[in-house]
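Minutes, project huddle
Topic: does the predicted pose make sense with alpha-D-galactopyranose bound?
PN asked that the exact inputs be recorded in the minutes so nobody has to dig through chat later. Recorded below.
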Amino acid sequence: MPLQANESLAELSADARTHLRQYYQQEPSLLAAAPGRVNLIGEHIDYCDGFVLPLAINRHIVIAAALNNSGMARVRSMGEEEAVISLEDPQAPATPPWTNYLRGVLEGFRLRGSWPVPGFDAVIVSNLPIGGGLSSSAALELAFATIVEGLVDTVLDTREKALLCQKAEHDFAGVPCGIMDQFASAFGQQDNLVLIDCQSQDPELVPFPSSDLSVLVANTMIRHKLADGEYRARREDTERALALLGKSSWREVNPADLETLRNEPDDLLFRRARHVVSEIARTRESAKELRQDNYAALGPHMAASHQSLRDDFEVSCGELDLMVRIANEIGFEGGVLGSRMTGGGFGGSTVTLCRGEQLHEIAARLSVAYEEESGHTPQLFATRPVQGARLL
Ligand code: GLA
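Predicted holo structure (tokens), as shared on screen:
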């Protein structure tokens, strides 16, 4: 069975309720869910004023919470020891590391004056793989921020909430991410992709209604340790390149401008810049094609995106390349419209746009061929775009 069965949101919520009862003898007064995301196209350009085109996926983090009449948050994430967080002081990064997403979100609420947060007990459950490049950390931040909104009885503007979560990731998890993951998890809508203009920070919905299309996510089950340092390094490369180009935004850079970067001692910054400029163009073009229901046009853009990430931006890895190669071998005839790595890279997942009727066959072929060549058993699932973070 190459396609993974999915625990439904209703089942996850029931689990969260049961665990809150079991650990804290409480019925939840708040229940929140936030989805992970896959990005169809527009990779490593959300921190370059680019456009990105993700969707929120049917894999979630769910949190159940109830007040506990103390100045403390007592939180259990499944498989982890209970974490106790004092709600009286400014928050600071601490251990264990997973609690930093929560501490960062709490600090965001404190800084905006929504403080103090009353004491509460909470449990966190999830069917979103961690480390699969599917934004489990953004989903955790958004689900938790939704709970805190309920606790302080304030509903934030969705953009403010997503940015608060991004800041938590920067300041408390030490990852200098762009806005894509938090925006996708916050603004996702059923049957819509979220086209995000990362310069204006405006999300726009792009309908994805066709029931004969499927988005197939293939987790390579590889996570390279260098990921975090390399992410920061890529961000710095793009900042240096932009400074050398003498521009204040990548939106003002044309392909012809890049020639000046060829004079650098090596072609590294030229290649980084070429990725940014070409990926922005591909993403705009893809959104335009999708609006005209021209799904087949996405294939070449996704292929070019993957190549650019592999060769110019150097964030792919052998396993991602292998998964994409197998999908391309299945090809258009076999129902594959396009395939590429998705997310930060160095492992994680690929996204493959397929014709629905051939989905199971494609998944089976990917699974068998990938395992045969890499020795790793991949995890595959199909998704459609779902609604973003909300109270249940
Ligand atoms: C990670 C970051 C995002 C984005 C992607 C690459 O997921 O969190 O902000 O930069 O990598 O597109």
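Observations noted during the meeting:
- Residues 222 and 347 are 5 Å apart (CA to CA).
- The chain is about 40% helix and 25% strand.
No decisions taken; revisit at the next huddle.
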